[in-house]
Amino acid sequence: MCRSIRTLRPPMAPEVTDEDVRAAALQYVRKVSGFRTPAAHNRAVFEQAVEAVAEATRHLLDGLEVRGSGPGPRP
Q: Domain spans of the chain?
């Protein structure tokens, strides 16, 4: 039904686009709902869920502090 959701956090994915975040959110909502494509009467709530998950994902990624991923020691 869906491909694996790839890791989006640095350093696993140094550059994450909004498209990457939305694709992961879509895969999550598809998996949880059991629908690859929602019926017309469920489309609005399906899309709302995708947007909410994408927003939560972006918030998570923006707030993560990954130790050891910063610049090296300064001279």
A: 37-65
